[in-house]
Amino acid sequence: MIALLVRDMKLAMRAGGGFGLGLAFFLIVTVLVPFGVGPESGLLSKIAPGILWLGALLACLLSLDRIFALDWEDGSLDLLATSPLPMEGVVTIKALAHWLTTGLPLCLAAPLFGLLLSLPDTGYVWLVLSLVIGTPALSVVGTFGAALTVGLKRGGLLLSLLVLPLYVPTLIFGAEVARRGALGMDAMTPLLMLGGITAGTIALLPFASALVLRVNLR
Amino acid sequence: MGSIWEYANPVKFVRTSEIVLPWVSVIAMVTLVVGLVWGFFFTPDDYRQGSTVKIIYLHVPAALMAINVWFMMLVTSLIWLIRRHHVSALAAKAAAPVGIIMTVIALVTGAIWGQPMWGTWWAWDPRLTSFLILFLFYLGYIALWEAIDNPDTAADLTAVLCIVGSVFAVLSRYAVNFWNQGLHQGASLSLDKEENVADVFSTPLYICMVGFGFLFIALVFLRTRTEIHKRRTKALLARERLG
Q1: Which residue range forms the structural domain that includes residue A126?
Q2: Is B81 buried (19+), middle (13-18) or exposed (0-12) by CB count in 10 A?
Q3: For residue B82, how many other CB atoms are within 10 A of its CB?
Q4: Looking at the complex, does the CB of residue A208 fall below 8 Å from at least one CB of chain B?
Q5: What is the reported pTM?
Q6: Which residue of B has its CA nearest to A169?
Q7: How far apart are CA B48 and CA B53, in angstroms?
Q8: Cα(A150)–Cα(A70) distance, rounded to whole angstroms?
Q9: CA angle B93, B96, B98 (to 5 degrees)
Q10: Which of A149, A166, A190 sits opposite B168 (nearest CB)?
Q11: How many domains does chain A have?
Q12: CB-CB under 8 Å, B156 with A168
């Protein structure tokens, strides 16, 4: 399992692996928002938590089709399927690798981008906290979507259509934590809900992902 | 009378549906005509809402069906995954477009009613938002069916998507409740409540709900039969090409 994790991380970090692409996308979204809505810092600080969450979510979405596509093309997915590692384990490791290469950098970069959108001082801790707790759910749900569409040519658009509705609860609670944090309100309730969603998806969705991946490899 | 699983045999299903379909269609037509005509022309105008209240006869049954169709798809998806009956998977496939149309009817009639009543076509109210999310789920489900060539793979993948989607749809419903306060009125047909829709309005409404239910059953029968026939034609053509 660890070998698979290391391999996936290495592949993602190498040139052409797309590491940093999500981060760059996140940066561009953040930079474009003030052009779209105007540079007043009052308005920006009001919408900053939501925009940052949305940007992180879209950046996550962008890299989803990489989870299985390359392994599918060169046949290493078949090898993984016949390896002694259960499919559920493969899927979980893939999701973890995706989070480490996409979600974690986003969490670390978010405060910097918050600066650009004049996020209020009280918001930073909550923003990072909500992203750290919420983005694993994005990776796990995204892995399910990627497993569903792995066999399809041009599955990218369909992948977004399938995954985005599944992101709704995570986005609602995550953005709510960041918003309440920025306003200096108590954000414990949505934070716990967010944690619940993440824990639930990590516990249950790998089974569904493994099931659909087996169907796709049939 | 054998077990219900007999109808998992496509031949048996087609034969039975041939007998049942005309009856169901007629019942659907009669109840819909009676319910809608009664509702539109023989109920008084509401003293505050005027005649716009009458859109309820389309709105409520459509919304009811939109949710129940998804539930039916969930059940048939589970049957497909557990017992591998092809009719079940095809019924789920046949129901999805009906469900999405019901969702659209509910959303559109709601908007038409909301414009004069709330002064807006759309508000980010929990109920409205949940229906929009339900619409997206239907869209994804249908798109996945369309995208995959192999019918068995498509049936498997969509069934899993339907089950996972159901969980997330319920989650979204509660998340949305948490996220914003509602503008939409609460349930007004509950059995245990003091304040309900007045009887003059509710009787034709119940008839319309039954009518929409039968209409859905008739459409699903029809569409499932079409799917079975389509698959049989495909198989025959393939055999012909081989022979």
Answers
A1: 2-217
A2: middle
A3: 10
A4: yes
A5: 0.88
A6: B172
A7: 9
A8: 10
A9: 125
A10: A166
A11: 1
A12: no
